[in-house]
Amino acid sequence: MAASSRRGPDRPASHGKFVALGPVRAYSPGVAPWEKAVLATEVCLAAAVLAGLIVRGHWRSCYAFCLYLVAFGIFEGAILAFPARFFRLDFWLAKEAVEALLKLAVAFEIAARIFWRLPTARTIFTLTFLICLLAIAGAVAPTVGADLDVVASVGLPRLLYGTALIFAGLLAVCLWFHVPLYPIHKAILVGFVPYLVAFTMVLQILQTFGWDVRGAANYLNTIAFIALLGFWTRAAWRRVSVSEAPPSVVSFLQPWVRPGRA
Amino acid sequence: MLMWVLLGLAAVFLPLFLYVVARRSEEETLRDWELVLTPKGREQLEAVQVYTNTEMALLDWTYERAQEAERHGRSQEALRLLDTGCRLIEAYCPSWTRSLAAMSVLSRMVSAMADVRPLRPRDFRLSELAQLARLSQFLHYFLMTASERFRLRLYVLARAFGTLLRIVARSTRQFAPQSGPNWETVDAARRDVRTLSDESIDAFRLLLTSLEAGRRRTA
To answer: What gap in Å lies between CA B141 and CA A185, rounded to an integer?
Structure first.
């Protein structure tokens, strides 16, 4: 998700036709070369994360995360390959909606895996998850059916912040119940929480200060996302050392881990 | 505006939260579950009982020898033995404080805890500990769940060990050849450390039973 792609195309009209960006430069249909380079870097990094997960066998630990990476690659690849067709606010919003659903699926899958055999923790997280979902629905509902600009600048930050809260809630429940986290799960959660907060902040900056500050907002977001992908790449390619805990303990808490798998 | 407030809160608390998460060792956390999921818990309980009995026997022996020395007019030797006894307590209490903290963490893994009774003030000789027990008895009835009551019990026990440690340290400093030791306080501390140990072992046993019951239900 390049700077432009992550934040979304620059102010298109509701009908999908692009209009002037503002006082600085006129809109050129397509992505700027440097934006293409950033976009390509992000797609490559996402592919590297996926490759790492497959090579090291970590893909079994969270299918939804693999699906998220694949969806990300397809969406961003489409924008990169056909900018004239896909570099539009409506496509970008649809992409963000799908990715938001996949992020929720990631949280749900990780929670289901780690709390499956821990009824108290499972109940507490289910309640937290439901409360957060209701809060997200309540916060996003007023923007449903509104102008695309409103959805992008008001609805999306709320959705992202709510998703960040779900990930943070999952981490908090793990801490409270002393539940061990599998390294990939920890990397996913620890990565998503600050990134989603940063992304929310970028959208909020745009909403508050207008599109004049899009350059700075774009840089901030690009740096945050590339850092996140770099962090995930490192985690995906790292060998997980065999636990010293008895196999019965590992198979109870982390049944997806294959004995002796590094 | 609300979003900015929420983002501000996230910016303040998130780094701290992520630091705590990152600092935690997952391997150590996984190993802690051995106590819950393997017979290691029972073995640990037996080891704790043996250790406590040994420490208490040593403490009793030291105290009795000190009394004997005092009776035979060997005040210096009595003081030295009492001092040794107090140092035994000083070395012994912190290990229980750490164990009680670990038990408190483990207790969160329990799905259903058997009900616990509050500490009884009359079981304690030292007035400070009796007051603490009275307070815990009062708070006990304000808590809704057995798990909360259990954690309160652990907290009070840990505080009681800390208080005992301070009393013993104070009496060690007050041992002076001219004034003589406060036999009453030392004897009360000796008896209370046994009561606290017994209560802590009971808590450990209760925790293991609840953890095992939870495991059977999940299996």
So the answer is: 40
- Would you call A143 an interface residue with chain B, using a CB distance cutoff of 8 Å? no
Return the SS3 of A40. helix
Interface contact A204-B31, CB threshold 8 A = no
Task: Express each pLDDT in B97-155 by its tens digit.
Answer: 888 888 888 888 776 777 788 889 999 999 999 999 999 999 988 888 888 899 999 99
Tell me the nearest-neighbour CA distance from A176 into chain B, angstroms: 7
Structural domain boundaries of chain A? 7-240
A92 CB-contact burial (10 Å; exposed 0-12 / middle 13-18 / buried 19+): buried
Global model pTM greater than 0.80: no
**Under an 8 A CB cutoff, do B14 and A190 touch?**
no
* A180–B26 C-beta distance less than 8 A: yes
